[in-house]
Automatic annotation (TrEMBL):
It comes from Candidatus Roizmanbacteria bacterium CG2_30_33_16. Keywords: DNA damage, DNA repair, Hydrolase, Magnesium, Metal-binding, Nuclease. This is Endonuclease/exonuclease/phosphatase domain-containing protein. InterPro entries: Endo/exonu/phosph_ase_sf (IPR036691), Endo/exonuclease/phosphatase (IPR005135), TDP2-like (IPR051547). Pfam families: Exo_endo_phos (PF03372). Its cofactor is Mn(2+); Mg(2+). One of its GO terms (molecular function) is hydrolase activity. One of its GO terms (biological process) is DNA repair. Residues 6-232 form the Endonuclease/exonuclease/phosphatase domain. The keyword DNA damage applies. Transmembrane segments: none annotated.
Amino acid sequence: MIFSLMTYNTCFNQAVERLTKLLKIHSPDILCFQEIETTEKNLQIITNYGYTLADYSNSFIKFGKIYGLATFYNPKTIAFNNSKTIFLQKSIYEALLTLLRIFRGGNKPRTVLKTNFQHITTKKKLIVFNTHLSLHGTNSIRIKQLENVLQDAAIFKTPTIVSGDFNYSYGRKKFESLMHKYHFSEATNHITYTFEWIFLRFFSFRSKNDYVLYRNFQSGQSKKISVGFSDHFPIISRFQL
């Protein structure tokens, strides 16, 4: 039985109201959003597409709005069991911003959403981590944050996916070492970039920020969907249960 997951950084919610055709074409069973506005009204937009909210967590305030993580699922194929929030360390830069109160919401903790699901047809359980690691700071803090997540995931033998915006665009050796330590594979290893910042209309900066990791699945295949709704591209992954 095949099921699918989409992870997408919506760039401060810019992509949310443009998802109709995308979701209709690809019909992912699980949706993991980062940088989504977490108001009830905004989250209702996703439920109007036929999805059910599993959980959300707030990460920061910008432009006077609250943004964070949100995980949705298709109730026709997936059943929700429970969820919890994992709190991550902040980078030194983020800690300084908190102390100096440079921006509103600087004291909000960086979080990861862990959700336990069950596939309705096969009755098999699966765990999904919706992740957004620190943007500001070095890879050292991102490695620590990711290890927190993978340590939690390694406790169980349940098929597990860790997806989202890792903000990890260089230093591949340490990243791979950490994956192997906790027996994860990368479904996105063939994707060269997932983020594109276009400036002066003719120039762009590209990097790989978004990942899908998995363990205890038979296979995992991912593709980048080339739509310009955000500075990130949505990634859809398909897994064999």
